[in-house]
Amino acid sequence: MLRSLHFCLFLLFFLIPPASAASSSCDLKPLKGLYFRPYSHQSSFWNANGKFIDAVAANLNIELTNIPIDEVHRNRFGFYELIKESIDKRNKPDFIISIFYAKGEENLLSLLDSYDVPFFTVNTSLDEPTLNIIGRPRERFKNWIGHISPDESLGGANLVESLTSINHGKNMAVFAATHQSAVNNHRVEGMMARAELLGVNVIPPVTTDWTTQSAIKAAQTLFRRVSDFDMIWTAGPDIAEGVVQVLQQSEHLKANKNLVMGTFDWSSSAINLVQKGTVDVSYGGHFMESGWALLLMRDYLAGLDYQADVGNLLSSELKAIDKTNVNEISELLANDKWKSLDFRQYSKCYNQNLERYKFSILD
After folding, report:
1. Most confident of the ranges 29-43, 243-257, 282-296
2. Distance CA 137, CA 42 (A)
3. What CATH number has the domain bearing residue 254?
């Protein structure tokens, strides 16, 4: 069973004592690493994710090179070539942190093993059939030292639950993302299972490519055919933004005061939608995971293995923002306030008083 890390951002930052001198058993020499993440706009999840991991790297004496995954490489074949090319044209990095692309996990792990580069994966749902093929971290592929991702299925289910608790709706329109995305697929699977338990009628989901423009086209098509729904479930904030734009142009749908909408992420775009009241709830907080992965990688390469403490296949729970807490979360995330934190306090190598990694406030 996956170990669970329940991140609570606004408490986590204040519950850990200041860092003390580095552990004498750790080799804290400077490190150079590569981080692969999708290229994204300023208000997106991936932008916040990149800023957070950069702040962690700055504290931990790590020279981290962010390599954007552009549109051409956002598939298992293109991504394999991007990673290979990125390593070949540089001196071999000390480590790599990256996402996976569905169906490309085995080939990518084989590549990294051939380069003998420690590899930590993030933000990618791994189901049991996939794990049966590739094994757990450190089993079949020795350089794959860890993985962390949200429980996307639970997030998809909780979003339905939240929507029904607001308006007790029964008919739900669904705007999903690409079928090549494991994150999307698991969110949708969780949503479908919970909707069935709740007796919610799910209109057959329409597919987007995660973008606002794609969502606008999908919403225009769906709303021409169907108007009898009281809930809208969207797989991401850019998708929600596109749906909102179409709703605002439809007098009939705009007049439905009982209509509620939900999405994912704590990106500035998602927060803005909740603050404006066009989205009622958004599940997220997981933009921090890459930063925690980097911290674990730092300790691991310094000679202090985290595995006995937190395991190597970690799952976090997405948390909801809504009208009751959105301003509090917005204030916390405004202007990247995490930049003032000393992330050495979260490291066992830098903080020898730390008995357990404090990524959870529930332990």
Report:
1. 282-296
2. 33
3. 3.40.50.2300
> For the chain, how many helices (H) and strands (E)?
14, 14
d(Cα 101, Cα 147) in Å, to the nearest integer?
14
Owning domain of residue 24: 3-150+287-320
Domain check: are 109 and 219 in the same one? no
Q: Is residue 342 part of a domain?
A: no
In a domain, 186, yes or no: yes
* 145 token code pair: 């030292």
Q: In this structure, are 305 and 230 located in the same domain?
A: no
Indicate the pTM of the whole model: 0.79
Distance CA(247)–CA(22), nearest Å, equals 55
Residues 19 and 100 in one domain: yes
pLDDT tens-digit map of 178-209? 987 888 999 999 999 999 999 999 999 999 99
pLDDT digits (tens, 9 = 90+) for 53-72: 998 999 999 999 999 998 88
**Which one-letter DSSP state was computed for residue 227?**
-
Query: What angle, rounded to 10 degrees, do the helices at 76-88 and 105-115 form?
Result: 10
299 sits in which H/E element: helix 289-301
DSSP state, residue 356: S
- pLDDT at residue 11 greater than cutoff 80: no
Q: Strand 206-207 and strand 201-202: pairing? A: unpaired
200: DSSP letter? P
Neighbouring-strand partners of residue 62: 31
Same domain, 134 and 69: yes
Tally of domains in the chain: 2
Q: Are residues 186 and 136 in the same domain?
A: no
Q: Of the candidates 230, 213, 266, 342, which has an alpha carbon nearest to the alpha carbon of residue 44?
A: 266
Report how far residue 263's alpha carbon sits from residue 1's, in angstroms, rounded to the nearest whole number: 27
Q: Which of 218, 233, 264 is the endpoint of a domain?
A: 264
Spatial separation of the C-alpha atoms in residues 291 and 312, rounded to whole Å = 15
What is the token pair recorded at 182?
A: 């494991």
Beta bridge partners of 262: 233, 281
Cβ atoms of residues 13 and 333 within 8 Å? no
Name the token pair of 112: 């990294």
At 233, give phi and psi (nearest 5°): -110, 125
